[in-house]
Write the structure tokens for this entry.
Amino acid sequence: MRGYDKYAHEPFAVTVDLAVLTLRAGSLHVLLVERGQEPYAGRWALPGGFVRPDESAETAARRELAEETGLKDVSGLHLEQLRTYSEPGRDPRMRVVSVAFAALLPDAPEPTGGGDAARARWLPYDDAKQLAFDHDRILADAHDRVGAKLEYTCLATAFCPPEFTLGELRQVYETVWGTGLDRPNFRRKVLATPGFVEPVPGGARLTGGRGKPAALYRAGAATALHPPLLRPPREGRSA
Amino acid sequence: MRGYDKYAHEPFAVTVDLAVLTLRAGSLHVLLVERGQEPYAGRWALPGGFVRPDESAETAARRELAEETGLKDVSGLHLEQLRTYSEPGRDPRMRVVSVAFAALLPDAPEPTGGGDAARARWLPYDDAKQLAFDHDRILADAHDRVGAKLEYTCLATAFCPPEFTLGELRQVYETVWGTGLDRPNFRRKVLATPGFVEPVPGGARLTGGRGKPAALYRAGAATALHPPLLRPPREGRSA
DNA sequence: CTTTTAATAGTCACCACGACTATAAAAAGG
DNA sequence: CCTTTTTATAGTCGTGGTGACTATTAAAAG
């Protein structure tokens, strides 16, 4: 490593960008804010902000998450560092290095637009195009990462409320992957994986929906899936 | 996102840290440099350096990789961004945010210690302890990531020369995972995965070693492994 | 009361994989 | 030269995970 005396150039600004994902009405949504000023004025962007001198990027990301969503307690939410985007010129004004995170929410409260934030709202993932800066890329990377981690971790429960049915859990996979899954096979697989889910004591069931009432489950103690729950191979697969 | 006018604090220094891994004599080695100055003078550290104003972190990492290893062409080497370490106080002198990368090398030339770098050398992974700063953590994260990616990507070929035998490829897995693998089963699995490896035309074989000459293979076109090559479950598994 | 929807139970066949045996072809050591 | 050792390679066998599928139950919707 070089000596620090060679540090003779303008410094960097360090920010965090958040891809906050949730499931609303059976489709994937992402939290976006509308930019009020140039550049990209009027365009949608991922929420984010500067890392403060006494913060780690993780701390800054959780603070921004609380500010943007208006949630009281974000300590239990799944926050995952994606990667860092550092291309020169990704912000036309100055040299900005941004640490990107993905956050997964079970329910979807309307954002309260806390503080001086511009308009904030949930947008369907498929409609979130033409974002400011390189946020299209960041959002796509977040989607890829989440989709991949569903295969070999228990991440799917992060999209679910504390108690959920296997149908809700299956919809997480179907929505993120964009595929259909066989109901009985999914059920067998999940229940056969120790620590993935555990039944709510008392045999509670969720009624009020269509069809037969479903048993309620909680997230188990496991964090990894052995063996993984592989997504079905795409149709047009390369030979 | 807040306005940039609120950017009123001391800036960050941005560096890259590299966990350069290779296989030497059947064991995993990591490239380390000896620190010449405080803090951590005399301790081993991961190579790295400052990101220049006109560089991305990836560009800086590749530049540092070339400088530290003395290799002419590092363009084909696998370089993977791990994550960014941004805890306040991880460098006692100033606020440093470091983007960590893992680099995988097939052969292991002795480092030439290019430029003003202190002493640099390969150290067995198991002996690389008590590193400077938070580099123990970064190195462990690199090992975890590489071990995990061996399961579901073709990353293992990045440790191999352009032409390699299935025995060499198997040793990559065994060395990184620290487990033994059944030779015939490994062979069947690799050859059954389309695009993982392809035989060298002409049926070239590697002689000179012990035992029966082995057929030579090249890395195939695939980048992901479907289905994955799962590592054998650990003995003391939690119930 | 019928239809619809979803949860749940169960069956069956295939195949990927672990465990294992056997054979071939080289070097090493007498 | 012959035996041992080492590694590559071929093949077998049984189990279990999984996809595809059918059947049943229990609720809401019409």
